[in-house]
Design a protein that fits this description.
The complex is a heterodimer of chains A (615) and B (189). Chain A folds into 4 domains: 90 residues, no CATH class; 139 residues, Copper type II, ascorbate-dependent monooxygenase, N-terminal domain (Jelly Rolls, Sandwich), CATH 2.60.120.310; 155 residues, Jelly Rolls (Sandwich); 155 residues, Serine Threonine Protein Phosphatase 5, Tetratricopeptide repeat. The two termini of chain A are 18 Å apart. Chain A is an alpha+beta fold and 615 residues long. Chain A contains 14 helices and 21 strands. Chain A is elongated. A 6-stranded mixed β-sheet of chain B has the order 5-4-3-7-8-11. A two-stranded antiparallel ribbon of chain B has the order 1-2. A two-stranded antiparallel ribbon of chain B has the order 6-12. By secondary structure, chain B is α/β, with parallel strands linked by helices. In chain B, strand 4, helix 4 and strand 5 form a beta-alpha-beta unit. Chain B has one domain: 3-Layer(aba) Sandwich (Glutaredoxin), CATH 3.40.30.10. Helix content of chain B is 29%, strand content 22%. Chain B is built from 6 helices and 12 strands. Classes of the chains: A alpha+beta (615), B alpha/beta (189). Chains A and B meet through helix 3 of A and helix 2, helix 3 and strand 12 of B.
Chain lengths: 615, 189
Amino acid sequence: MLHLRHRIIWRARLGTFVAALGATVCGTALLLASPVSRSKASPAQVTFNRDIAPIMFRSCSTCHRPGEAAPFSLLTYTDAKRHARQIAEVTRGRIMPPWLPEPQELKFADEMRLSPAEIDLIQKWVGQGAVEGNPADLPPQPKFVQGWELGEPDMILKAEKPLILPPQGTDTYWNFIFRFPINETQWVKAIEIRPGDKQYVHHANLLVDREETSRRREAQPGAGFGGMEIRIESQVFDPDSHLLFWKPGTAPYPEPEGMALRLDKGTDLVLNTHLQPSGKTEVIQPSIGIYFTPHPATRFPMLLQLENDVKLDIPAGDKDFVVTDTFKLPLDVQLLAIYPHAHYLGKDIQAFATFPDGTGKTLIHIPQWNLNWQAVYRYAEPVTLPRNTVVTMRYVYDNSEDNPLNPNRPPIRVRGGNRSADEMCHLWLQVLPIHFDPEQGDPRRVLQEALARHNIENNPADFEAHYNLAAMLQAKGSVDGAIEEYLSALRLRPDDAVANNALAAALLSQGKPDRAEPYLVAALKARPDYFDAHYNLGNALAAQNDFAGAAEQFRLALQSQSNDANCEANLGSALAEMGRLSEAKTHFERALQIDPHHALAQENLQELQREMKEQ
Amino acid sequence: MNEFRKMVRLAAMVAFLSISTTGVAQSGYDLDGRNIDPLASSSGKVVVLVFVRRDCPVSSRYAPRIQQISDEHRHDANFWLVDPDKGDSADAVRKYLADYGYHLPALRDPNQALVKLAHVEITPEVAVFDQHRRLVYDGRIDNWYVDLTRSRPAATTHELEDAIRAALDGRPVARREVRGVGCYISDIE
């Protein structure tokens, strides 16, 4: 009568995102005039009011206004005049507005690039003495929304503790955890990120942590934690699919129709920030505004993370170290957004698509990478990438003394890693599977499996790739293949609790409790309060008729997680097998308290009551 | 020259309450409105003028570094912070000093007389005068900034400190002028 259950644990490798700096200006240039000649502006004369104000209002004022990221305002002629030469210089050098990608056929949304004609106009205006011009020519100042840009949010969460940013020192990478205080699942249309004082936050990435894994890194609850790159684990296949990114000048992005983000009870949102000291002590306390929607998601994009960090082994002094990677898409997708990432040695960054017919298109090209201005780039229109399209990334690194941003002087050999002095070679693609057969199941699993196989090919020692491939194989019923991959993962990390437990669960599902047992013991050695491993070990022992041992394991499981109906029901079953009927009854009843519709507990309780009557 | 400067100083002492907008060559105003010639007030030490704009984030990020260098040279160099923005009140400058933890004396330079004397163009830039009041260096503090959006993890050249040491040793400075990265002073003329 004992009903065995097991849990399958899937741990995804979700985003390891990074932050960038950027506390500089995001503006255009104006020039300065000596005496303002309002009336004498001839057609050849460039004036602020007629020629420059429209450029400035469109391309500079979004950031250059009070409360925004830029260090001074550019809203009036006087503002512009106070920075005229600087504006001329930064526009000429394309430092401002900050926009790294080269022009290309596939357009991005909200491109901040000035045209050569606009830059030329600015230079002329400055050269002619930065004349104000006819007041009648001045267009109205743009209207900016004060406060939350999408209106009052449905929920505002503020970081529990601020970060005190010291006046001096290197860039700081800090993570704030927002605990989502709601008891039922909600769908989110948009999240506006307010990173605290925008002048000192270069960029911020908001990551969804569904299993509170980041909390383990806080010294005290709410304290936040340091680190440039963070990894979030997940036990179910629920791939992160949204790029929640803030940089100066970014407007909050309402998700497209049908692509709402799910937040459940217990979900944490982790804001990964990159901050730069300002010269004085700053108090940084971000908040986020959440906008709900009643409409659950109907379309499920996925973040494909291409990376080839294993190839990053850059000799000291190498000016042109090239890393490439190619990935063939296993199904048709629409590419919605792209997010390249490297650290301080990154120089020239490119990604391109080669279509099945042999033609190709550049997806992004950044000829002078600048971590400080890294960004998520959304395409103006989704880009269709048919099945068998090959996505290639090609990153060039400069580890010589000529790279002023080189963190090591003299240069040293640099390898891939999570610290800011290590390098990275990552490219995230937000893709939406299209034209797939729903009968084939979740198309994201197909993508995930292909990606895991690809990563193993790149790096046979990639633990996560083996683990994720195993989980995908198990999910589609290829348990033998899954077991093989779990074993490969465990050869790389024999003490990994999650992998040991997952392998045991696969063996249990094949009816091999004796083979599962040692892996569960290993999992519990690594993590003694691991609920799933106690639970699975209880099942393994029960399957071998060791009901006393099983009961013991179910009790230990309940010590770390008391509200589990399955575990209560199984404990009741084990006790019943041992003839301890009244104790068993208590646990079946507890299971039904937790879940009144628990079928196993109902069935077993009825049978138990029959048996108790007979006695 | 020395005679002239003494006279200027005397005049300023007599007339400090009636500050004219024309100002006096080589002098600025302290935060109580007194006309001050930083070179004349420097009793035999090297003199360093540090030019900052309150609205220039590069100037501001340098504050701890400027304070440190001036502390290290407190026995042999007199540092003055100079604000060339005529729109800045003395109270605005006081608040800026407090916010950024400065304990250097500050001068307002609304007529940019000290800017001209020092040959500087950008904030932050410095001018170093030797004990004979000769300008021996003007330009950047060091090479921390590459351009307005990129700064090195740490500076690898240290022009200000090199110039102070050269001035103290009576040696010529290797490069007399190295322009800085930051905000143009001429934009606020």
